[in-house]
Design a protein that fits this description.
It is built from six helices and nine strands; from the N terminus they run E-H-E-H-E-E-H-E-E-E-E-E-H-H-H. With about 210 residues, it is of the alpha+beta class. The chain folds into two domains: about 150 residues, Beta Polymerase, domain 2, CATH 3.30.460.90; about 60 residues, no CATH class. Strands 2, 4, 5, 6, 7, 8 and 9 form a seven-stranded mixed sheet that branches.
Length: about 210
């Protein structure tokens, strides 16, 4: 059982600002090769950042790194260049070396003495496009570890359903009393340390929508 609670924007915004500074460093390093934009997503974008004060399991942030021209390099090369530049600059902000996972690049600030993660950041590498039916779509770089291949992969259907579900909950007065309450409960009951906050949020949203006739 965890003891997550919501924290104010005043508490977490300085860390977000540092991450933005880091991304500016990376942009400046890479602009002669390719350019990208960035977007804060996930719990911070919804002001639903949590922290467990008893275990000091700190904030986690999610950013999209949005590639402007995905045809310039293969997916693997994009990810390797970004990891290299993130590693070059992240230590001055207190982060360890980047980890290359299936969907994201992860950096962490660790309290080694107490074996705790103070806060972490996941960077997904994406690009946006319009399909043949004029729908806005998105692909992300997927690291297929069994085959050691990096691929541009379409976001799952749940990604495209998320904005409508969020709007449904807010329009029907479900956001504060049900979504935020259940999200905290689900985080505190989660027993899988590999489970990401974004996944717990998606599960929470699905539950609330199903309960309320979405």
């Amino acid at each position: 059982m965890h003891h997550f609670q919501y924290v104010s924007k005043k508490q977490w915004s300085p860390f977000r600002n540092e991450i933005i500074e880091l991304l500016h460093d990376v942009q400046n390093e890479l602009r002669k090769k390719f350019t990208f934009q960035y977007q804060l997503i996930g719990s911070a974008s919804r002001n639903m950042v949590t922290m467990d004060p008893e275990t000091n399991n700190g904030f986690d942030f999610d950013f999209n790194i949005i590639i402007n021209n995905p045809d310039l390099f293969p997916p693997k090369q994009f990810k390797e260049m970004l990891i290299g530049r993130i590693n070059k600059h992240s230590s001055k902000y207190g982060y360890d070396s980047a980890e290359d996972s299936t969907r994201v690049i992860t950096i962490k600030v660790k309290d080694r003495k107490n074996a705790k993660i103070l806060h972490s950041v996941d960077f997904a590498i994406v690009y946006n496009y319009t399909d043949d039916k004029c729908y806005d779509c998105q692909k992300y770089i997927h690291n297929d570890k069994p085959t050691n291949r990096y691929l541009w992969e379409e976001q799952p259907s749940s990604y495209y359903e998320l904005p409508d579900k969020i709007a449904f909950c807010k329009e029907n007065g479900l956001w504060n009393n049900e979504v935020k309450t259940l999200y905290l409960q689900n985080k505190n009951n989660n027993k899988d340390p590999r489970e990401k906050s974004r996944s717990i949020f998606s599960q929470t949203l699905n539950t609330v929508c199903q309960r309320n006739g979405y």
